[in-house]
Design goal:
Helices cover about 30% and strands about 25% of the residues. With about 210 residues, the protein is of the alpha/beta class. The chain has one domain: 3-Layer(aba) Sandwich (Rossmann fold), CATH 3.40.50. The protein is globular and about 45 Å long. It starts with a strand and ends with a strand. Bound molecules: adenosine-5'-triphosphate. Belongs to the ABC transporter superfamily.
Length: about 210
Amino acid sequence: MLELKDIHYHPATSETPVLKEIVILEKKLKPIIISGPSGSGKTSLIEVISGLTKPSKGLIAWKNQTLSEHQRRAISGVVFQFPERHFIGLTIAQELKLGHRRLPRVIQSEVLKKVGLDNIKMNVLPENLSGGQQRRLAIAVQLIREPKILLLDEPTAGLDWSVRDEILQLIKELSNQRLIVIVTHEPELFIEMDTYNYQLSQGTLSKIL
Ligand SMILES: Nc1ncnc2c1ncn2[C@@H]1O[C@H](COP(=O)(O)OP(=O)(O)OP(=O)(O)O)[C@@H](O)[C@H]1O
């Protein structure tokens, strides 16, 4: 399903390569967990997979078809770390409609239901949501584009324990319909889930069997 063939990423602004000889080949729609310490290249890998960054070398394929950066951007939804810091809509409805001016109300309700926010009024201010609800909203914003790959950068960072469990449950539910790729420095949180597991260390990826 998702294949990364010998991906290298060495931006001109970095003395050393950020990603080296990255290989992923997974055939099932099972979440991919990539763990690694700060600075190991996790965010860069998300940017490369989602087509936001062009690798220096290598190919990325989805369902056996090699895709350009443009094509990968079209099928990817990315939720970056602490997405709530970047909300700019004055209400939940406005946040959902950014980039989708004519988004029908029914689609807004549908995505909010998918992330478990269907009991919240559309005119609520995003900053008045709880930490867990804000993460749900950030995921809902990406679901509008119906991404085939949903990439989450540290989805549980900074959340209370009880809220983390809720977000994990949501990720589990969402993983039935799309490929979820998670980068995290807390892989132990996902231990109960059926996932593919990788470790990133100084730009080198290894599969944990
Ligand atoms: N465009 C760039 N130019 C120079 N250095 C870069 C560039 N992109 C990434 N790096 C460097 O590559 C390394 C990996 O960065 P990246 O943000 O991908 O790591 P990370 O594992 O996500 O870290 P964190 O958990 O702290 O966010 C860092 O040392 C970073 O400074």
